[in-house]
């Protein structure tokens, strides 16, 4: 699963081509990404911390982290203070970048990507782009990208891997942590503070 995430967070890194079919953007970018990763393999292996910079470079301009964080928090987003919302967005972004970085460390030259038939109208502003990925001769895994056209650029707002939504998956775990943290005080914001603390701990751990 982690190796698949290598591609998940980079497929829209040429999203400035707003009028282009998003699936064509994905293919061109994925090809370029894998080429770059293999060329930098020796540097990555000798200094794993460099992976964060590479991960940030590929993801930050093209993922709507604010929308993804808001969706992942669900009903708890409106219950968080404005400062907590800022911290949640910052830490969730770091978590996704760290996850991507970890995936890069396990990048395989046996990763293959298929692009099934896909219909796209030039006036579409919300799309779900399908791909299929296969690792080491294993089963094919369907990966769908939900993206929104924002200021002439496609922004990824969710990824579904084998039917499991990234945002929905985090929403469940985040809700559980918030509820645990607010159980004693009966104050939801205490639970949100606990979640922020847990995210910071994960983000500060080494690769």
Q: Any overview of this molecule?
A:
- This protein has helices at 2-8, 22-39, 41-46, 50-59, 65-73, 76-79, 82-105, 166-181, 188-204; strands at 112-114, 126-134, 141-150, 153-161, 164-165.
- It has 207 residues and is an alpha+beta fold.
- It has a single domain, classed as Roll (Nuclear Transport Factor 2, Chain: A).
- A five-stranded antiparallel beta sheet has the order 1-2-3-4-5.
- Helix 1 (2-8) crosses helix 7 (82-105).
Task: Give the count of structural domains.
Answer: 1
Mean pLDDT: 82
Shape: globular
Main sheet attributes: strand count, strand direction, barrel closure = 5 strands, antiparallel
Q: Report the CATH C-level class.
A: Alpha Beta
CATH superfamily: Tgt2/MlaC
CATH architecture: Roll
Question: How is the topology of this model organized?
Answer:
Blueprint: H1 2-8, H2 22-39, H3 41-46, H4 50-59, H5 65-73, H6 76-79, H7 82-105, E1 112-114, E2 126-134, E3 141-150, E4 153-161, E5 164-165, H8 166-181, H9 188-204
Helix pairs in contact: 1-7, 4-7, 5-7, 5-8, 7-9, 8-9
